[in-house]
């Protein structure tokens, strides 16, 4: 729940008209008893499994595995060294591209939040880059860096960096002006202002960017492997598709989704660690 | 809130009122960008960086020759179908989850998982079910856009102030009346936030589906141009895609203003 809301606001803060509709879900939070929080999702899973099983049997297609086939394939896949090799290959590009995106995106975003002149020049581009489907850039990528490791890294970078910039920018922009005024009136210089006010205050927003960036990075990683460079996990998916192993295909998709979820919950943990002095609502 | 948001962190910056107004509109930045792009394109002569003027020329060609029209029509049909389904299901499920604690508990983990997961990985699954048809692309567009609508809609319903509910109850309204006249109007602004994000995502789903599942529409034009190492056409088509997305978002904003314009500014959060 939190993630989408923050995504919505982060996209909003790109300078679009509805800048930062904030909402406070705690006002009428429907509390769910602990057991129900486990039981209800389980019930949903059972419903999905039954519908899937019946539907797949009814469809009787070579391409559509049943639920049980997929679960079996998933079990086999986890012990298949090829999966782990593929994950390792994919994640190399993810780690490199994501790290570069953070090192470029966070300082750039912070600067854009502080210096209006710079922001005025950059804002229209950020709006365009937020809407442009990055997959459409793949042809330009091929023409510039070919179809190797660089292309994968660059794609992950492109997918990640925009959302990191936009959120870092929002972080600095939304610092309470009273704090800045106070610091100024006590005679703080620009450097001191950054160190003691702007940077600490923008950490939560920056972390939102890091988290969203991570989810975008995983998307970029998979997209480039499916559309351009048949490497890693993307290669595995295409192979299972070509050799009509639908169970393994579906299981690989599940693995990708699981990886995304694990990474994002790790980033969430990190975000809570990084800015414990601020209310969770602002994260 | 608005004033604070816009001012915050901004150093007073007054390079003369006229320059300020040009710069504020963002047009200034675009002009600089175009000049830099043109110069680099003319001097470096990389295949992947054709000069801006050539891209503009190609764009005009594509439009005036009518070459773009069939592709655009196909893509827009996919987009319209996918986005309409997303809105229908998204708002219905979201409202349900906002009202019913049980439904929310049942679906929450799955909706959140699918929202953060890379949507394109589902393309092979749709392909296995529907083959190369339009259904696969529409399904992908729905996967891209429906979850953000669900999440924002249910959050919107839950975020409706309990004061409003109390007030309604004290006027002795029925549950249905409260939903129709209190909950729904109060939730629309946040629902629209979800819809706006969903629009951008739907356009991405459309292009990705057309490039990956079935080569049709604008996605096919991009792929074809890639095979001919024709960066000019790639950028021209991409700019059309961006235009479609921005137009869609503007239209949504218009409707948003229409529906929510009566709210006080603080409630709209704009």
List the SSEs and their pairings:
The complex is a heterodimer of chains A (283) and B (270).
Chain A: H1 2-12, H2 34-59, H3 67-78, H4 81-114, H5 116-131, H6 138-145, H7 149-173, H8 177-185, H9 190-227, H10 232-242, H11 246-274
Chain B: H1 2-7, H2 17-24, H3 27-44, H4 52-64, H5 68-99, H6 101-116, H7 123-130, H8 134-159, H9 162-170, H10 175-212, H11 217-227, H12 231-260, H13 265-268
Helix pairs in contact in B: 4-12, 5-6, 5-8, 5-10, 5-11, 6-8, 7-8, 8-10, 10-11, 10-12, 11-12
Domain module tally of chain B:
1
Identify the CATH class of the domain at 95-283 in chain A.
Mainly Alpha
Individual helix count of chain B: 13
How much of the sequence lies in strands of chain A comes to under 5%
Q: Which chain pair has the greatest contact?
A: A-B, 90 and 99 residues
Q: What is the arithmetic mean of pLDDT of chain B?
A: 83
Relative helix content of chain B:
over 70%
The second-level CATH architecture of chain B is Orthogonal Bundle
Structural class of chain A, please? mainly alpha
Secondary-structure element string of chain A: HHHHHHHHHHH
Strand portion of chain B: under 5%
Average pLDDT level of chain A: 80
H/E element sequence of chain B: HHHHHHHHHHHHH
């Amino acid at each position: 729940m939190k993630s989408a809301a923050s995504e919505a606001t982060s996209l909003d803060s790109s300078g679009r008209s509805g800048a930062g509709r904030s909402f406070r879900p705690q006002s009428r939070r429907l509390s769910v008893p602990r057991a129900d929080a486990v039981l209800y999702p389980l019930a949903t899973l059972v419903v999905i499994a039954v519908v899937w099983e019946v539907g797949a049997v009814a469809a009787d297609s070579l391409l559509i595995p049943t639920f049980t086939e997929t679960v079996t394939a998933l079990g086999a896949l986890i012990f298949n060294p090829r999966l782990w090799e593929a994950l390792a290959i994919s994640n190399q590009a993810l780690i490199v591209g994501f790290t570069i995106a953070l090192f470029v995106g966070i300082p750039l975003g912070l600067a854009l939040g502080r210096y209006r002149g710079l922001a005025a020049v950059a804002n229209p581009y950020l709006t365009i880059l937020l809407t442009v489907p990055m997959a459409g850039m793949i042809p330009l990528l091929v023409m510039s860096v070919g179809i190797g490791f660089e292309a994968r890294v660059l794609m992950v970078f492109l997918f990640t960096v925009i959302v990191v910039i936009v959120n870092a920018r929002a972080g600095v922009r939304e610092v309470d002006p009273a704090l800045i005024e106070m610091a100024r009136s006590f005679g703080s210089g620009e450097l001191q202002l950054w160190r003691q006010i702007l940077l600490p205050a923008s950490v939560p927003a920056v972390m939102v960017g890091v988290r969203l960036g991570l989810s975008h990075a995983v998307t970029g990683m998979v997209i480039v492997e499916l559309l351009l460079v048949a490497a890693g996990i993307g290669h595995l998916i295409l192979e299972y598709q070509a050799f009509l192993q639908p169970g393994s295909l579906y299981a690989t998709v599940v693995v990708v989704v699981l990886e995304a979820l694990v990474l994002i919950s790790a980033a969430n943990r990190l975000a809570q660690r990084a800015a414990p002095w601020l209310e969770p609502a602002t994260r | 809130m608005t004033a604070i948001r816009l001012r915050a962190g901004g150093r007073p910056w007054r390079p003369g009122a006229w320059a300020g107004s040009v710069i504020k509109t963002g047009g200034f930045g675009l002009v600089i960008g175009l000049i830099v792009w043109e110069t680099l394109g003319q001097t470096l002569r990389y295949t992947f960086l054709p000069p801006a003027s050539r891209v503009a020329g190609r764009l005009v060609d594509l439009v005036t020759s009518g070459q773009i029209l069939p592709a655009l029509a196909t893509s827009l049909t996919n987009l319209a179908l996918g986005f309409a389904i997303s809105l229908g299901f998204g708002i219905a499920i979201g409202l349900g989850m906002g009202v019913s604690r049980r439904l929310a508990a049942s679906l929450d983990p799955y909706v959140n998982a699918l929202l953060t997961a890379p949507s394109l990985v589902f393309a092979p699954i749709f392909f296995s079910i529907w083959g190369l048809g339009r259904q696969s692309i529409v399904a992908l567009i729905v996967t891209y856009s429906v979850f953000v609508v669900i999440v924002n809609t249910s959050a919107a319903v839950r975020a409706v102030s309990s004061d409003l509910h109390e007030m309604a109850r004290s006027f002795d309204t029925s549950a249905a009346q409260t939903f129709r006249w209190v909950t729904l109007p109060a939730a629309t602004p946040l629902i629209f936030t979800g819809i706006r994000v969903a629009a951008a995502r739907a356009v991405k789903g459309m292009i990705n589906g057309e490039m990956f599942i079935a080569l049709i529409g604008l996605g096919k034009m991009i792929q074809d141009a890639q095979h001919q190492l024709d960066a000019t056409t790639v950028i021209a088509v991409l700019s059309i895609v961006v235009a479609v997305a921005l137009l869609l978002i503007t239209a949504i904003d218009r409707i948003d203003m229409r529906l929510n314009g009566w709210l006080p500014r603080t409630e709209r959060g704009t």
